[in-house]
Automatic annotation (TrEMBL):
<dbReference type="GO" id="GO:0004104">
    <property type="term" value="F:cholinesterase activity"/>
</dbReference>
<feature type="active site" description="Charge relay system">
    <location>
        <position position="400"/>
    </location>
</feature>
<feature type="domain" description="Carboxylesterase type B">
    <location>
        <begin position="6"/>
        <end position="330"/>
    </location>
</feature>
<feature type="domain" description="Carboxylesterase type B">
    <location>
        <begin position="353"/>
        <end position="474"/>
    </location>
</feature>
<protein>
    <recommendedName>
        <fullName>Carboxylic ester hydrolase</fullName>
        <ecNumber>3.1.1.-</ecNumber>
    </recommendedName>
</protein>
<dbReference type="InterPro" id="IPR050309">
    <property type="entry name" value="Type-B_Carboxylest/Lipase"/>
</dbReference>
<keyword id="KW-0378">Hydrolase</keyword>
<dbReference type="Pfam" id="PF00135">
    <property type="entry name" value="COesterase"/>
</dbReference>
<comment type="similarity">
    <text>Belongs to the type-B carboxylesterase/lipase family.</text>
</comment>
<dbReference type="InterPro" id="IPR002018">
    <property type="entry name" value="CarbesteraseB"/>
</dbReference>
<dbReference type="InterPro" id="IPR000997">
    <property type="entry name" value="Cholinesterase"/>
</dbReference>
<feature type="active site" description="Charge relay system">
    <location>
        <position position="308"/>
    </location>
</feature>
<feature type="active site" description="Acyl-ester intermediate">
    <location>
        <position position="195"/>
    </location>
</feature>
<dbReference type="InterPro" id="IPR019819">
    <property type="entry name" value="Carboxylesterase_B_CS"/>
</dbReference>
<dbReference type="InterPro" id="IPR029058">
    <property type="entry name" value="AB_hydrolase_fold"/>
</dbReference>
<dbReference type="InterPro" id="IPR019826">
    <property type="entry name" value="Carboxylesterase_B_AS"/>
</dbReference>
Length: 502
């Protein structure tokens, strides 16, 4: 097998020179599609032009246009410079590779409006040291990544408006074509992501255009918000054009708008944190696909955190106010809520738990049941670890996104945890990262148990099992049966009712 001494690789597009750090080879800013600018804005990603000579791949590319302050505060760090020319990916690989290695492709979160594959929590070095190839991906964000308008209809022979999802699909195709040159096994690709990245994974599991491009999936803190219907997306596109003074615009007029004009939009013009359903990329709503068990058949891991409601304030959700609304909901009355959440009397706390479970926890249960219906394994988890120095600050548990630096084993590299994590926290993080790599290496329909500190069994047909990671902020792991079963079964029925009505 190829055993490179320098990080020089030959891709189908040309030669790339990376850099070496601590026995890991790194290539940054690799183009996986043509720049989506000018006439290519709001079009499917096009192939990269070949280059001659050696292209340096040692610096991260620009990220898609976004709110830099928002990303610094909530998205994982400083995304650097911005450009509409943003379709690049990054690769980490062990310097010595004697056989094809499992590949882990990461899709970042950020509500489809912020983030980048280059952010510090997503540094792939520690995972690569465990014997996998790590790929992190940029994709178009905001209105550049998801946009519908009548003037754009029919340009490609089919309706397309989920351009960010198409970017992710193009990156997966690049992996299929090129990852062997980096030492990766193109027949063992795990697609994983958090929040909007997890929602992207779910969407690709439902997309006919992504079938066969990956072989395992990890869904971290995916959420149950319904996709935006195409007609609503078209109406928003027309309102956006009117906002810029364009009445009955041509596609050329829309594409002439400045690339940095979209991300500051607020109110009804602000893009939602979900894809559009009804185009060729996502013909049917993602939730409907899982309720009817028509997802791509492959092994999955799915889970969420104990304080996912921490993200609700970002979207202006009044947690106590949600309980007031639920009191008036005929199908989900106050008495039933009290029965499901015994001992929780404060509306704020009750709202925190109910919103967490309806928006996040229930999704893992939905995915598990969909997997059982098609005979595919599903590993479920509940992440509840908080670094020891944070116990007095984060009393409600692990907040939205908290698991990411544990998964990548980057606690000691990112703000603010690098300033206070201790040896226990770092040891725990290493065990979490081991589980994720073991999934990429071992998960299959024939082997439904992952090795680790405790053996982690999948929820196969007839078995509702879940791995608790953290055990109420304590350092440990425990397999539980029928976790929150009564709550999740009820919320699933309520969700299914509304999906059916739609």
């Amino acid at each position: 097998m190829h055993n490179p001494s320098t990080p020089l690789v030959q891709t189908q597009q040309g030669s790339l020179l990376g850099l070496a750090e601590d026995n890991i080879h790194i290539w940054r800013g690799i183009p996986f599609a043509a720049p989506p600018v000018g006439a290519l804005r709001w079009r499917s990603p096009q192939p990269v032009a070949r280059w001659t000579g050696v292209r340096e791949a040692q610096t991260f590319s620009a990220a898609s246009w976004q709110n830099i302050d928002y990303c610094r505060e909530l998205g994982g760090g400083d995304p650097g410079r911005f450009s509409e020319d943003c379709l690049y990916l990054n690769v980490w690989a062990p310097a010595v590779r004697t056989q094809p290695l499992p590949v882990m492709v990461w899709l970042h979160g950020g509500g489809f409006t912020i983030g980048a594959g280059s952010l510090p929590p997503y540094d792939g070095q520690q995972l690569a040291k465990r014997g996998v190839i790590v790929v992190t991906v940029n994709y178009r964000l905001g209105h550049l990544g998801c946009f519908a308008h009548p003037a754009l209809a029919g340009e490609e022979g089919e309706r397309v408006c989920n351009f960010g999802l198409l970017d992710q699909i193009a990156a997966l195709k690049w992996v299929q074509d090129n990852i062997a040159a980096f030492g990766g096994d193109s027949d063992n690709v795990t697609l994983f992501g958090e929040s909007a990245g997890a929602r992207s994974v779910l969407s690709l599991l439902a997309s006919p255009k992504a079938n066969g491009l990956f072989h395992k999936a990890i869904i971290q803190s995916g959420y149950t918000l319904p996709d935006t219907p195409l007609d609503a997306a078209l109406a928003q596109g027309e309102a956006l054009a009117a906002h810029f003074g364009l009445s009955n615009p041509t596609a050329e007029q829309l594409r002439a708008l400045p690339a940095d004009a979209f991300w500051p939009l607020e109110g009804s013009l602000k893009p939602g944190p979900v894809p559009v359903c009804g185009d060729a990329v996502l013909p049917h709503p993602m939730l409907e696909t899982f309720f009817t068990a028509r997802q791509h058949p492959l092994p999955m891991m799915v889970g969420s955190n104990s304080d996912e409601a921490s993200v609700m304030a970002v979207f202006g959700v009044d947690l106590a106010g949600q309980i007031q609304k639920l009191r008036q909901e005929r199908r989900l009355g106050l008495g039933l809520i009290k029965l499901l959440y015994p001992g929780v009397k404060d509306d704020e706390e009750l709202g925190r738990q109910v919103c967490r479970d309806m928006a996040f926890t229930t999704l893992g249960y939905v995915v598990m049941q969909a997997q059982q219906r098609i005979g595919q394994p599903c590993w479920r988890y509940w992440f509840d670890y908080v670094a020891e120095a944070e116990h007095q600050t984060y009393l409600n548990g692990a907040w939205h996104g908290n698991e990411v630096p544990y998964v990548f084993d980057t606690l000691s590299q990112v703000e603010p945890t690098r300033d206070y994590v201790n040896e226990n926290d770092l040891a725990f993080s290493a065990q979490v990262a081991d589980y994720w790599v073991n999934f990429a290496r071992h998960a299959s329909a024939d082997d439904d148990t992952l090795p680790g500190p405790v053996r982690w069994p999948a929820s196969v047909k007839g078995r509702d099992r879940l791995l608790r990671i953290g055990l109420n902020k304590l350092r440990g792991f425990k397999v539980e049966n029928r976790f929150m079963r009564a709550r999740l079964a009820l919320f699933r029925r309520v969700m299914r009712h509304h999906v059916t009505l739609d």
